[in-house]
Design a protein that fits this description.
Mean pLDDT: 96
Strand order of the largest sheet: 2-9-8-7-6-5-4-3
CATH topology of the largest domain: TIM Barrel
Radius of gyration: 24 Å
CATH class of the largest domain: Alpha Beta
Number of helices: 13
Structural class: alpha/beta
Number of domains: 2
Number of strands: 19
Largest sheet: 8 strands, parallel
Shape: elongated
């Protein structure tokens, strides 16, 4: 902790990450790959140190990101595994993507011509995967339009290298809908193969479906959230949370019943209370909706409700805790003594996108501190 100047930090336990990866690999079939998803800076945990840790596993041969810039960042750090850019790349991004040897996604008509033109200029073959739209209607070629896509592919085939075909369920927790969309995907792959286009890798399952519906695993599963935390309901117990966000109390004061806390006096105390100020606010990525539901934080291992939020500070009711300025407060994860507050639980209080929505929102001024573990 010497020479630290941050007001809060996200402790990332790389030993726990390794354990989670081993647990996930143990659940996959013999020929099913794990593709870690490192988009949004590995959900706020830090894409480079996370990727470097995951490269310790020879079973992991491909990473997935959302944008070209994310893939280039990994390459600049020396990551040499295949990197799939899952989002739709724009023409001006293609030259840099090929320079970095990224695998791009074809998710719209005309993209292969754009990709082929740049590949031809560089005297190389551009790697890509085909995204099939089976119901999410975000990006992807719909199965009904594959005939025209195949014609485009044939025009450019000599400049391209198809590395795989993938998709994404539109409603991962609906088995009935997933089954229908899975069949759409399989039918689309069959059309490609019937037209003499071999598909070396097929994947449609992400974290949720890989946990609940292993029958959809195919050749690979893409795991983002599952690497870092257990499922939000009915947790398996195999996965531990990797990240813990901790800050510090900067003041503790006694306040009387009826006094108002925070801007515009939005919070009025219902009884005499001890109120602590914390050096964290919405400028650090603390979700303001958590204050409306009195979400808990950990102080001295005890749950204390959030009261009010400013940009750089917030207030917490610490009436039940013996504490002082300088003591740690944990917003989610494990505190310094092992008490645990699940990010999944906190996210569920505001219907957020699971706990990874909380980690992804953390700003750069929240220091990332890496604990090596085993």
């Amino acid at each position: 902790m010497e020479n630290r100047t941050d007001n809060s930090y996200l402790a990332v336990d790389l030993g726990t990450l390794r354990s989670n990866v081993r647990a996930i690999l143990s659940t996959l079939g013999e020929n099913v790959q794990l593709i870690p998803v490192l988009k949004d800076d590995a959900y706020g945990l830090g894409a480079i140190p996370v990727a470097q840790t995951l490269c310790e596993f020879p079973e992991i041969q491909c990473f997935a990101v959302a944008h070209v810039s994310e893939g280039i960042l990994l390459r600049s750090a020396g990551i040499d595994r295949e990197i799939l850019v899952m989002g739709s790349s724009l023409p001006f991004q293609i030259p840099a993507a090929l320079q970095a040897d990224l695998t791009l996604t074809c998710g719209r008509p005309g993209f292969l011509r754009e990709l082929s033109a740049v590949a031809k200029e560089r005297h190389t073959r551009a790697k890509f995967q085909l995204k099939i739209d089976i119901g999410l209607h975000r990006i992807g070629i719909e199965p009904e339009h594959l005939s025209s896509w195949i014609r485009e592919y044939r025009e450019c085939e000599e400049d391209l290298l198809l590395k795989g075909v993938f998709s994404h369920f539109s409603e991962a927790d609906s088995l009935h809908k997933d089954e229908a969309e899975f069949q759409r995907f399989q039918s689309a792959v069959a059309v490609l193969e019937e037209n003499g286009i071999p598909v070396p890798l097929k994947h449609v399952a992400a974290s949720y479906s890989s946990e609940h519906f292993p029958q959809f695993s195919l050749d690979a599963v893409r795991c983002g959230r599952r690497l870092y935390m257990d499922r939000p309901t009915d947790p398996t117990g195999m996965i531990r949370e990797v990240a813990s966000w901790r800050g510090y109390l900067t003041a503790v004061s006694r306040r009387k019943k009826g006094e108002c806390i925070g801007y515009s006096g939005k919070v009025q105390l219902k009884e005499d209370s001890m109120v602590a100020t914390v050096s964290v606010g919405y400028g650090d990525g603390l979700n303001q909706d958590l204050f409306g539901v009195g979400a808990p934080v950990l102080v001295g291992g005890i749950r204390c409700p959030l009261l009010a939020c400013c940009m750089d500070q917030c207030m917490v009711d610490v009436t039940t805790v013996d504490c002082k300025a300088g003591d740690e407060v944990t917003f989610f994860g494990y505190d310094g003594k092992g008490a645990f507050l699940s990010s999944q639980e906190i996210a569920s209080l505001i219907n957020d996108d699971e706990g990874c929505g909380l980690t992804s929102a953390l700003s750069p001024r929240v220091a990332r501190v890496y604990e090596c573990g085993n």
